[in-house]
Every structure is written in C-alpha cells, then in structure tokens.
Amino acid sequence: MFIRNSLLLFTVGHGLSKVEQAQISLSTEAKKSIDIHCKIESTNFESDTVHWYRQKLNQVLEHLVYVTSITTAARNQVDGKNKIEARKDARMFTSTLTVNFIEKEDVGIYYCAGWDSQY
C-alpha cells in the first residue's frame, strides 16, 4: 500500500534581494525522504540565516529549524524523531530542507525565510 503525502511550499524574505521556491508542490510515498529547495539571492548569503517552518491544516505555524553555516547542516527532531535537516549551498545560493521518513503527519505547507545578517 502506498500513501502519498503532499507538501505545499512558500517563501518569505526579510532584508534580502529575492527568496524563491520553484517547487510549488511535492508528493512522495510514505517512509521516503524529500528535499525542498529555497533559493536566496543575497550579497551576504554565507552569513545569512535561513529558517524553515511548517503549517499543518488548521494549526499554527511551527518553526522547524534554522541554518546559519554553509559547512554544517542543522538538524532537529520533530515528534521525537530525527526527521529534519537543513543545509546551505553558497555556490547555488540555496538552502535545502530534507524531511526524512515521510508520514501522514508531515503533510503541510512548508515555508523558508531568509534573514540578512545586516538587519
């Protein structure tokens, strides 16, 4: 039996030139991992902080993780599970959120937000 989970994606920028998510909707099978990409055009991308959020249906926005380093991934547990990892790629001006072991509980709208270190 396959369970398909859909994720909707949006972006928010503060003090940045441009924040963009080309993937509007993603679907995958249960127990798989999925990568969500967020492109941030900024003159200070290496020092900028990128936050990732999720909003489930009829629930408040939930902060998942933030990443500041281009050399070290940021990880976070969700519901006691090692599900979330965020990375920054300075060459591509991109942050990637990986959601591991997708379950029905992971369905929601995912947001990335960039914060310029100068503001």
UniProtKB/TrEMBL annotation:
InterPro entries registered for this protein in UniProt:
Ig-like_dom, Ig-like_dom_sf, Ig-like_fold, Ig_V-set, TRG_var/const_region
What's an example GO BP annotation here? adaptive immune response
Ig-like domain: residues covered: 17-119
Keywords from UniProt, A to Z, are: Adaptive immunity, Immunity, Immunoglobulin domain, Receptor, Signal, T cell receptor
Q: Which domain of life is it from?
A: Eukaryota
Q: Which PROSITE patterns match?
A: IG_LIKE (PS50835)
> Can you list the GO cellular component terms from the UniProt entry?
T cell receptor complex
Any matching Pfam family: V-set
Name recorded for this polypeptide: Ig-like domain-containing protein
Q: Give the organism, scientific name.
A: Bos indicus x Bos taurus (Hybrid cattle)
